[in-house]
Amino acid sequence: MSLDFLLRPFLLAVACFLAFNFSTVVHKSKLTLQGIAYLIFCNDKKWAKTADPVTFFGKDNQKIEKKTIIFVRHGESTWNDTFNKGPHRSKIQFVLGFIPGLIKSFSYEFYLLLAGKVDSWFYDSPLSLLGLEQVESLSNFLKQDPNTITKDPQEKLMLQILRKDPSAPDSILVSSSLRRALSTVAASFQDRLMKNPNDTIMVLPSLQEISRNPDTLSITPPKTQVSPSWIDISYPKVDFSTIFARNVDMSLHHGNKPIDTNGYKRMSEFCNVAFSSIDEEYIIVGGHSIWFRSFFREFLPRESVHVGKKKKVVNCGAVSFTLMKTHADGAERFMIDEDSIRVVYGGFK
């Protein structure tokens, strides 16, 4: 039996599947071209050196506004599962399993394309099975009584805010447009959302991760409601479809970050949105490790040696701090109050 005898019907079947799912093929092709363009031309991690924020604060009779921010990093993603060692395996395990893992990931990508699913292992990489376990751990942590977790009044308050306890001040959930961040917020705060079905998770374009990698490109078309990944759908403990349809506000989602942008522009935009467009004093942010670390580097005083400048927030870690705003030299200026930083869950690594 010749190889052609087997290959021809296989290729014909593949061609039929691709033709039947033509719109998905076009969308994935656009993403691929966009991903290549980002890899070549994007300078997302590069920006001019900025002034030390401490130089704008501490003046007499200075008006300072404050917001409390709680960073919540997403769980492990499929991209991480393929390309990062992670805390769950040794270097030897990662090296030995890299090629099989790569074959597995490309096989999934090929299957998703043939099946006509607007989904991907690589683009806008979703939570992996490990990521869902990490999210479940955070969710279970938030179910505990804050009084049994900590004696620190500030940490206790942050837990009450995350849970949206009746005695807690108003807060809002916001998230990156990338699915792993949205899924983390949806699953971690599902009890909060069930008790408060009118609450929303506001998607902010400024929170999109700082990187040129394809996993930082949103697969969700502009002004389109986000859909759960095939992994999310198979997870029985969270109804992602209902939460995404009912609670996620995509009105500000205009597609992917521009190719000529950079991380600092988006971090500055977030600061402006936090003070000018969000009424709540407490903002819970579902986002990404490099974005969070860059934020600490830019808005903590230059002389600060806080661990957040060097280390990443762990998967599903939660860290709170006070963000301050003032006007100086004809512009709005922002700085993190270093003394206000609290590790609510997880920490840095």
Automatic annotation (TrEMBL):
Return one GO MF term: phosphatase activity
Q: Which domain of life is it from?
A: Eukaryota
Q: Which InterPro entries match?
A: His_PPase_superfam, PGM_Phosphatase
Record organism: Chaetoceros tenuissimus
- Gene Ontology cellular component? cytosol
| Stretches of the chain forming a coiled coil according to its record | none
Q: What is this protein called?
A: Uncharacterized protein
